[in-house]
């Protein structure tokens, strides 16, 4: 686990999904917000990985609050270490991303996504809880993610050359 879960992380790791397959199709403010959020997720994530949503479960507690449980098959880790081959991600009604999961079963199940994961601990002794954001693993999104991950690692491309900055 990296840095502690901060207030801004709740917005970036909203326990939700975006369905932006081609960020170049976005215009104006939406394109800038998508780009800023992606950059923020890459900078703060504990893990970035290719995943597939294999199962989507819906739970309702006694007070009639709904929770979605996305079971994801972990593919290739792009950043960090995969916690296991399978991971359960939860989205509850009080999370900002809940509405993006609700009613989107057909857009989620068996689809490839890039998962941005950051763990939160309520107390130092508590079991860490993964917060997430999923983006479609399309070529345009994957290329942008790869570029930003290279920048995070200190790699720059300059006129066909690769320059690695080491601290």
Provide a descriptive summary of the structure in words.
The chain is of the alpha+beta class and 167 residues long. The chain contains five helices and eight strands. The strands form two sheets. Strands 1-6-5-2-3-4 form a six-stranded mixed β-sheet. Strands 7-8 form a two-stranded antiparallel ribbon. It starts with 6 loop residues before the first helix and ends with a strand.
Summary tags:
5 helices; 8 strands; alpha+beta; single chain; two-stranded antiparallel ribbon; 167 residues
What average pLDDT do the residues reach? 89
- Name the helix and strand elements from N-terminus to C-terminus, one letter apiece: HEHEEEHHEEHEE
Largest sheet: 6 strands, mixed
Individual helix count: 5
Low-confidence stretches: none
Write out the strand line-up for the largest beta sheet, numbering strands in chain order: 1-6-5-2-3-4
- Work out the helicity level: 25-40%
Structural class: alpha+beta
Short note summarizing the structure:
The protein is α+β, with helices and mostly antiparallel strands.
How does the SSE layout of this entry go?
Elements: H1 7-12, E1 16-17, H2 28-44, E2 47-60, E3 66-79, E4 86-92, H3 98-101, H4 105-108, E5 112-120, E6 129-136, H5 139-152, E7 155-158, E8 161-164
Parallel strand pairs: 1-6
Antiparallel strand pairs: 2-3, 2-5, 3-4, 5-6, 7-8
Helix pairs in contact: 2-5
């Amino acid at each position: 686990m990296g840095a502690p879960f901060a207030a801004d992380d709740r917005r970036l790791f909203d326990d939700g999904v975006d369905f932006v397959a081609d960020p170049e199709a976005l215009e104006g403010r939406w394109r800038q917000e998508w780009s800023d959020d992606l950059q923020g997720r890459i900078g703060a994530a504990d893990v970035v990985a290719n995943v597939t949503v294999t199962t989507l479960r819906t739970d309702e507690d006694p007070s009639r609050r709904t929770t979605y449980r996305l079971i994801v098959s972990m593919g290739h880790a792009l950043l960090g270490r995969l916690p296991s081959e399978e991971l359960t991600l939860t989205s509850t009604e009080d999370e900002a991303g809940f509405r993006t999961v609700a009613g989107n079963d057909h857009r989620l199940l068996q689809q490839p996504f890039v998962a941005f994961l950051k763990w939160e601990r309520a107390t130092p002794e508590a079991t860490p809880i993964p917060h997430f954001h999923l983006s479609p693993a399309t070529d345009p999104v994957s290329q942008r993610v790869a570029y930003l991950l290279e920048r995070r690692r200190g790699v720059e491309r300059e006129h066909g050359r690769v320059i690695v900055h080491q601290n």
